[in-house]
Prior knowledge:
Number of domains: 3
Helix content: 10-25%
Oligomer: single chain
Amino acid sequence: MAEYRPIAPEDRxxxxxxxxxxxxxxxxxxxxxxxxxxxxxxxxxxxxxDDGLVSxxxxxxxxxxxxxxxxxxxxxxxxxxxxxxxxxxxxxELCREVCREYREEGVxxxxxxxxxxxxxxxxxxxxxxxxxxxxxxxxxxPAHDTQGRYRRLDxxxxxxLRAVEAAFGDGLxxxxxxxxxxxxxxxxxxxxxxxxxxxxxxxxDATLVxxxxxxxxxxxxxxxxxxxSALGYADEEAHRSLLEFLRxxxxxxxxxxxxxxxxxxxxxxxxxxxxxxxxxxxxPMARLTTLDALAGLDRAGLDRPLTLAVEDPLLPExxxxxxxxxxxxxxxxxxxxxxxxEPDARTDIGTLTQLYLGRHDPATAERVAGLTVLDDACRxxxxxxxxxxxxxxxxxx
Length: 397
């Protein structure tokens, strides 16, 4: 029987070796494993032991905007199992225990960046948001007569950056509220082992209203590429000024790469969209750890009780039927013990998570996800309970 527990200090070298094998095998083995990078306030380490460490991960905790407020969210990263221990269910068991630990801590939502979307979908995670990845020459970005000035920033400016981040992400579900450690150890450093980023801010009247974090590299496809890893702005003038800043690199840079939320209208702003590329890609995934999260729904507009049957492939405790009313969330029975009367709708935990976040409204979830409405009369009530919202987690971990 495998045991789930914190990774012991003496096993960190082993964890470093098999995460390197899982995510950077092309770099070959390293004689001295990098254990210093495993010391951080941003995450803790969890492992599954079966006559030694057989699978491990990083458990993150951060605050993000969820629905109508800022909540604690769990993050799962660096899930890795060495090849000699794969295909034995260890990664699945590790993910189950991580979710249960978060559940016990009162963390209702766990997000991750998948190496394989189907792999995590099979454990109840579902895509939280997509991205548009843009590539274009800087000279095609829109010109703008700026009202402020640009200034080079560093990690010491993290509090000013955070104020812009909060304004930029207000009302955007999963928009992270990065801590000082996150700014210093992740956003403003080369934590993945790449090039150190540049950080520039845009100020008006000595107030920071926009920022860009980016690196410059050479590549086979383009002579010199500027890749934007983070940006934020408080208003549209600041947005246009950041694009103007990138445009001014036309004599130095051949190609700009940046990813934006899918409601971005960047192609409408550029001077020549014919030379730009735009690819829509799947982003991070999310799942609920408990049906108790439904208590946080705005139920004021619910004019009739709704009964939902939920299936969870990872956590049997979420295989349940729940009744949602204006005043209460009540678990009725185990899903295997449903009475003869059908629920109003059935859903898997991943689709329920997408509804909870607002990625899909119920009509869309019926078409493209796992929602099955069994009582047509409840459709309007479902729409009141699960309105569509803007969702975008930008920060990779």
